[in-house]
């Protein structure tokens, strides 16, 4: 809430309104009578951006003047969501803007909904990167993000005939008022060609990369404000254009398509987030995207390093380049190439600088999810880097042989070059070898990569490995998305909790105060009404606001086990129909998430959820005791509406397969009670909130590993569960899809014969845990206590805490200022 006496606030409102009016007239070219809501949005965005720019410029000037060590965060995804509301909160202008807009008969919430979600990411990886940027700025750390300015985001998801359909997410079609094009900050990125080697008169080897094809990278800067600080950091996004924009000779000859074909081919690099890489062309484009981003970012970092008065040898002392997963790991051979080919360093010196510059975060324990590239693809597109990777690998394997003489299996496991079938480059191995720090993102995940996936690397280089449990920014995931609860917390906790989430522990003092708990419950109910209203207006869904809101929203993937959840729904449906179950409080199960276009089973799971929804919601025997809804086109702005309304948070991934998860943290922070497995950060959340306030079920990672080693037979579990057997029979015989009887034959066959994600093994315990949850919900007073304790004990899971650990333990960088806005 804006502080100050009424005359001061009125003055701020008047100034803001005046600034807005000028922007509407001078930048949009409209008056109030002719303006649309989109015009208002753009004028308001420019008004806010103007104020950000003052601090933005001052921040960058401060960095150049003081020359601190900086962190550069390289990520192929930044799932930023909408900027306007977050910026207003960060700048302490939300109430000023709201009052100013009200005086002009403009609804601020309506204007917020005009803004497109920035289509720069898909799931948790990109949203984590966005939270980290927020925390870096809030903690006043000298930092900058680098990514790609995708013209089209993941995709727009539509449900047609119960199935997912995709259409382009042209999020930039109306422009982006937050970005500033940096036309002078451009780099020419080479591809293909060949290498030429020669020795100088002193016998030193020199290599040149020649006859390359070239693409131009142009930077677009987006300001990233800290919460109530003067620090505004930068997210620099690269867009691709041709080295030659227009071929006049082709045009004059009447070849109009040929005149622009090179431009079109070049610009495709930054067109789409995650091209379908099931074919060679998709793989080639994906590799080029990664190198395009890395090349431009490294050259930009070095340009800034030298401009600040440093030398290239100062790079590890003035910069940490953090690799968010393996996608940017081609940066390691690229920096080696720059140091050796452009700065004429010998191998040892270049390698010393490189391995003191990079840090790497691993985000998966699934071997099949670790990025690998065909050697032939790398050789064709980046021949110089292929030479360098071979050399890195040979030198490293020599070290392995010296440490473990005669151990061929360790050499094979740790080699960058995979020899199984066609030779492939293992980018995770490259990232580990070339980085000074390797971290997991939850304690279980970090233990698994040390004890399993990268055990041999850990044995050889134990000091590299560490854990940094993920976190979320409370500014977006509470203050912005749940203002009612945010203000309730202010009544009972010192108001600086938004920058020190551990202070939420103070809420425990109200845990026995019935009036306080009732206030909390009324806020949850109001949020449920808001979500129901949104779903009715946008999706024509009729939701019972007096039901339990049970929510499972995340990327659709077999290991996240949306299938297990919908099997539970089917089992409950059958029990209600057969008179075996009567729900005292109705249950509404919400699903949302996107399946990758080429992921058949994930898309089948969406199809199954929707046909089950159709049957369950329209069965008069159920009488709305149980409802199921799939909310289409899940994205950050939709998550901001769903999460505050949830009573129950489904976090039921197969144990040992979710690196961390951050959805679990967002729901808990907003007063949802988790039902989940022994996986990812669920374990640490359970430790924080205590066993009485969470519902943990299922087999642990080591138990599942043992079952697999002994020969897992799903039929054993199916035969022992009438509910599961009936649900699978109904699915495969078309009970839920009478017009498409055999739609799910492959899906059920996979479960019966393989069940790689142990759905059957965990089903009965899941049902028992869910039954216990329903019983607990009927103790209304006890449930309110559980929900509030989830908020109070969630303080550890702040991205501010995570970033402080990165800054201290890995990056070794310091805040640059303590000025508050």
Report what the structure shows.
The protein starts with 5 loop residues before the first helix and ends in a 10-residue tail after the last helix. The chain has 33 helices and 22 strands. The chain has 821 residues and is an alpha/beta fold. The longest helix is centred in the first third of the chain and has 30 residues, at 37-66. Strand 17, helix 22 (562-577) and strand 18 (587-592) form a beta-alpha-beta unit. It has a nine-stranded mixed sheet. A six-stranded parallel sheet has the order 19-18-17-20-21-22, sandwiched between helices. A three-stranded antiparallel sheet has the order 12-14-13. It is globular and about 90 Å long. Helix 3 (84-90) packs across helix 19 and helix 11 (331-342) runs antiparallel to helix 12.
């Amino acid at each position: 809430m804006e502080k100050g006496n009424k005359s001061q606030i009125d003055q701020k409102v008047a100034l803001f309104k005046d600034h807005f009016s000028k922007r509407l007239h001078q930048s949009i070219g409209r008056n109030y009578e002719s303006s649309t809501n989109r015009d208002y949005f753009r004028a308001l965005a420019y008004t806010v951006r103007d104020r950000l720019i003052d601090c933005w410029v001052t921040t960058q000037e401060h960095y150049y003047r003081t020359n601190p060590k900086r962190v550069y965060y390289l990520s192929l995804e930044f799932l930023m969501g909408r900027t306007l509301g977050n910026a207003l909160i960060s700048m302490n202008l939300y109430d000023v803007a709201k009052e100013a807009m009200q005086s002009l008969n403009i609804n601020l919430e309506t204007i917020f909904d005009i803004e497109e979600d920035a289509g720069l990411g898909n799931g948790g990886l990109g949203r984590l990167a966005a939270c980290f940027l927020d925390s870096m700025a809030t903690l006043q750390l000298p930092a900058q993000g680098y990514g790609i300015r995708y013209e089209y985001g993941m995709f727009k998801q539509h449900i047609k005939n119960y199935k997912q359909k995709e259409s382009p997410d042209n999020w930039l079609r109306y422009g982006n008022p937050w970005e500033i094009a940096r036309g002078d900050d451009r780099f020419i990125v080479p591809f293909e060609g060949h290498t030429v080697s020669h020795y100088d008169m002193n016998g030193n080897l020199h290599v040149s990369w020649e006859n390359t094809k070239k693409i131009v990278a142009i930077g677009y800067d987006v300001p990233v404000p800290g919460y109530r600080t003067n620090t505004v950091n930068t997210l620099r996004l690269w867009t691709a254009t041709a080295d030659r924009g227009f071929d006049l000779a082709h045009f004059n000859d009447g070849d109009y398509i040929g005149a622009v074909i090179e431009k079109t081919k070049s610009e495709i690099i930054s067109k789409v987030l995650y091209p379908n890489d099931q074919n060679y062309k998709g793989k080639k484009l994906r590799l080029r995207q990664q190198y395009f981003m890395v090349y431009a970012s490294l050259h930009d970092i070095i340009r800034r390093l030298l401009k600040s008065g440093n030398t290239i040898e100062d790079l590890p002392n003035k910069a940490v380049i953090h690799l968010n997963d393996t996608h940017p790991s081609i940066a390691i051979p690229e920096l080696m190439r720059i140091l050796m080919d452009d700065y004429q360093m010998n191998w040892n010196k270049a390698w010393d600088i490189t391995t003191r510059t990079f840090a790497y975060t691993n985000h998966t324990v699934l071997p099949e999810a670790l990025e690998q590239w065909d050697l032939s693809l790398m050789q064709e597109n980046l021949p110089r880097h292929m030479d360098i990777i071979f050399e890195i690998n040979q030198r490293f394997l020599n070290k392995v042989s010296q440490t473990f003489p005669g151990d061929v299996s360790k050499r094979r496991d740790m080699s960058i070059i995979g020899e199984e079938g066609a030779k492939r480059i293992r980018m995770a191995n490259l990232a580990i070898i070339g980085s000074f720090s390797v971290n997991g993102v939850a304690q279980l995940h970090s233990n698994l990569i040390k004890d399993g996936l990268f055990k041999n690397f850990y044995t050889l280089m134990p000091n590299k490995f560490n854990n940094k449990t993920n976190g979320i920014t409370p500014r977006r995931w509470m203050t912005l998305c749940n203002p009612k609860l945010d203000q309730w917390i202010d009544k009972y906790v010192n108001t600086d909790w938004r920058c020190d989430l551990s202070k939420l522990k103070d809420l425990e003092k109200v845990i026995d105060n019935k009036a306080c708990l009732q206030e909390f419950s009324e806020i949850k109910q109001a949020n449920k009404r808001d979500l129901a209203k949104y779903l009715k207006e946008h999706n024509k869904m009729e939701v019972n606001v007096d039901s339990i809101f049970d929510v499972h929203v995340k990327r659709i993937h077999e290991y996240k086990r949306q299938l297990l959840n919908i099997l539970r729904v089917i089992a409950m449906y059958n029990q209600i129909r057969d008179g075996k179950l009567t729900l005292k409080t109705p249950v509404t199960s919400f699903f949302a998430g996107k399946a990758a276009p080429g992921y058949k089973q994930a898309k089948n799971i969406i199809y199954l959820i929707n046909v089950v929804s159709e049957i369950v919601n329209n069965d008069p025997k159920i009488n709305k005791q149980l409802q199921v809804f799939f909310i289409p086109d899940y994205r950050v702005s939709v998550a901001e509406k769903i999460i505050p309304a949830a009573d129950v948070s489904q976090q039921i991934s197969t144990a040992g397969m979710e690196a961390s998860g951050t959805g679990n943290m967002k729901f808990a922070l907003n007063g949802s009670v988790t039902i989940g497995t022994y996986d990812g950060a669920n374990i640490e959340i359970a430790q924080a909130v205590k066993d009485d306030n969470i519902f943990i079920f299922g087999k642990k990672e080591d138990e599942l590993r043992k079952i697999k080693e002994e020969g897992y037979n799903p039929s054993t579990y199916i035969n022992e569960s009438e509910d599961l057997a009936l649900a699978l029979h109904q699915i495969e015989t078309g009970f839920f899809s009478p017009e498409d009887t055999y739609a799910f034959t492959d899906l059920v066959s996979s479960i019966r014969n393989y069940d790689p994600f142990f759905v059957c093994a965990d089903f009965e315990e899941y049902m028992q845990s869910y039954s216990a949850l329903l019983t607990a919900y009927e103790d209304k007073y006890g449930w309110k206590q559980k929900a509030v304790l989830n908020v109070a004990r969630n303080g550890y899971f702040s991205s501010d805490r995570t970033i402080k650990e990165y800054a201290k333990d890995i990056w070794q960088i310091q805040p640059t200022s303590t000025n508050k806005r």
